[in-house]
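Let's do one together. I've listed all components of the complex below, 532 residues spread over two lines.
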Amino acid sequence: MLIESDPDIDFRGVSKSFHIHEGNTLREFIPALLGGRGWDVFQALHDVSFSIYPGESVGVIGRNGSGKSTALKLMAGVTAPSEGKVLVRGRVSPLIELGAGFHPDLTGKENIFLNASILGMSDKQTRAVYSDIVAFAELWDFMDTPVKRYSSGMYMRLGFAVAIFSDPDILLVDEVLSVGDEVFQEKCMAKMREFQERGVTIVLVSHSLDLVKSFCHRALLLHAGGLVADGDPAEVADRYHDLMWATQTG
Amino acid sequence: MDQGLSVTKRPRARTAAFRASDFAHSLVEVARRYQLLWHMTVRHLRGQYKQSILGYAWAFLNPLSLLLTLSFVFSVLLRFDSGDVPFPLFVFVGLLPWIFFSTALASATDSVVGAASLVTKVRFPREILPMAAVLTKVVDLGFGLMILVALMVYFGETPTWTALWVPLLFLIHLLFVTGLALPLAALNLFFHDVRYLVGVALTLWFYMTPIIYPVDAVPSKYNVLFDINPNALLINAYRRVLLEDIGPGLDRLLIGLVVALVTFAIGYYLFKRMEPNFADRI
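Okay, and this is what the predicted structure of the assembly comes out as:
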């Protein structure tokens, strides 16, 4: 049975351009303003439209600079499109550079509460999943240690654990599965599959075509800021191969 | 679009620019995220005196050293007359709110730039950042208040019921400094000159505010400068209610309140207008 539902993520004719500028001082700004020597504009996305429906797992692939990160930032709501519309429904948990909100001088425990509150959780909700977070990150003995004493692996584990227990409706994943050792990676994958089965919408940005093919229902291929393919992951991955080959020889 | 099937999942357009009608909605959102505001404040506090041997003693030592310097220069060397009130007490009642104002403004101006890694990754109401920076300085002010109490005991100055005005005066001050800090924090992302401009402006403002001198010492033709300067109005009012045991002067207080409210409304509006571009400019 097909259920009509509204998309969780909806890009409608989205373009995003950036001003390329040297620095952020008035000395650079005023000549540009007065002299009419405008800024150079870099078009990161050009007229991109797609809809991602509840429960879908969608892989986003493309070469470096193809606009993947920009698309992810637009989904996370940290930046606005220059043209078009981006609609996102529900709580988004970005697994983008884990632990971005960690403060080195706060303890593991304090950072859990801080980061969870940044992701929109109340302290009460965090307390309810606190022991799950600690258990998942396997950091029982380090909760009262300032995170500046953590190894980078411990740091990432804690970041992943907080994000994953923040009860997201939409999970945005950016190449983070390369964190930690293989055992932890397995654990992360298992958790993501559990989310998938529970109907959480997942957007996965990855260079690993195998991962996209095995995990996602659908893939989007971005190239030079445009959406060039949208569909079955295996077919889109083939297109990606062709593109890579074409740009390398051409 | 949404036919009420799911209550928690409302579509949010991320393109709409902030309009005046969004004020209430977005302030309610900030209030709803009070725990985030608190965690951010703790984060600031922890970072503030980290790796210093004296740690929080600096929250006492900073205002105290300034007080001693100013008292020595202006009372002993230049023999300023502060009337019936001992000069150190006179200065400190003005100095303490000034320290709050200036450190809060400077720290809030840097707050969004300082949280770059967060701003480019996660969506949350960005005004929480300058607000937390200001709140951090409220905690510092608490430490300074202990010095004030000690000074008042030492000089045998007992506050009367007029001291009850202080919380209201402080709320106006808080509103004013937050209103100024919001657009400065946003502009500082676009032009890093702003932080230096704030430093220069604060130095000038310090002398334009009756902190080391009483407002009566000002020639009357310059009065207008003090009538529109909320810091002057408020510091004068703090002195009246704490040291002179009279009311804050309601007409002046009203001006201060209006200026603070207008500053906050404009500042918040400007901040929210610039907010969608933050992540692109860091």
